[in-house]
Amino acid sequence: MEAFSHIYIEERLLGSGRALQILSHFPNAAVIPIGHYKDVFNRHGQDIALQHRYQNLILAEKHGKLVYPGAPVCQSFGNQHFYYTSCAVNCFFDCEYCYLKGMYPSGNLLLFLNIEEIFQELRVLLRAHPVYLSVSYDTDLLALHEIFPYARLWAELVKTEPGLTVELRTKSGALSYWKELRAVFGETGDGRERLITAFTLSPEYIIREYEHRTGTLRTRLRSARAGLALGMPVRLCFDPMIYCPDWRAQYEALLREVFRALPTEQLRDVSIGSFRISESYLRNIRRAFPRSAVVQYPYENDHGVCHYSAALTEEMEGFLFGLLRERLPEERIFRWRE
After folding, report:
1. Domain range summary for the chain, segments of one domain joined by +
2. How many CB atoms within 10 Å of residue 144?
3. Residue 108 half-sphere exposure, CB side, CA atoms within 13 Å?
4. Candidate from 124-128, 143-147, 259-263 with smallest mean pLDDT
5. Model's pTM, two decimal places?
């Protein structure tokens, strides 16, 4: 984890245990008290591209509504009561195509430390029905694990709430995470089947060109294998699929690596989805990253959602589906549908 040169912290959090724990990792950072995180995060005229290269950290609390219905562009995996929440915004990783770069006015990393308030709102929902919750749409929590143990806190909640299933989506290759989960769930593993670790996998070319600072394909697969060895549910997400001139060869090579590294019969499931993004987000990203090939691709605009042509989408996703079907039953392969 790279050091932050400046850390902004809401005044109410000064001296709090969690803030001090985080600050201890960055003893040379300049600590700047602020009244509200929006005073820094929502400023006009920020250079998002530069901020993603040289991030500052903001420590804050979030109030108001904290749990939201899942977005239509996201994969629900057949769950009726699908929700998401954000305990952090923006990411230590730096993927060129990430929608966060078009959604928020800042590239700085924002951590919300009052995670218990999210838990309280979830418990109200859980009294009415089970909840399937995605917690990593606005960040990669495993990439933040060295700073603050969000993943462990979610595991502890899952263990005590039998109606809650949580998905942690990641491009990390971290291994220490699994040791903490084993400590939370114990030898019996009660509740672990409801904490799904979902690894986004891309061909090595895509990782190298567009997924900066993320785990390599080898380290992601190594971490997935470690989770499976502990009996933890592991999902593989071939989403987003990114077009490149030799995409067939790239994705075929990717699956060869997956099949060589992992016992596919132990996987919970896999998902497939080609790149798609809100028109407004894409417009903002294109303005900030004019030289990015993946951002400047001539996507089709379908009622405000930009994506590859229907023919290319079907060709890419169908190709990958066919390869996966050779090793997995169809009921464990999910394709995103609008």
Report:
1. 6-335
2. 23
3. 24
4. 143-147
5. 0.94
Burial-class residue 193 by CB neighbours within 10 Å (0-12, 13-18, 19+): middle
Instruction: Give the contacts of 170 (CB within 8 A, at least 6 positions apart).
Output: 136, 140, 141, 142, 143, 197, 198, 199, 200, 220
Q: What pLDDT sits at residue 257?
A: 98
CA atoms of 37 and 32, how far apart (whole Å): 11
Calculate what percentage of the chain has a pLDDT beyond 70. Answer: 96
| Res 336: pLDDT | 77
d(C-alpha 276, C-alpha 132), whole Å: 22
Is the backbone peptide bond immediately before 240 cis, with ω within 30 degrees of 0?
A: yes
Q: What is the CATH number of domain 6-335?
A: 3.80.30.30
**4, 55 Cβ separation under 8 angstroms:** yes
**Contact present, 237 and 169 (Cβ < 8 Å):** yes
CA distance 242 to 244: 7
Positive or negative: CA dihedral 79, 80, 85, 89:
positive
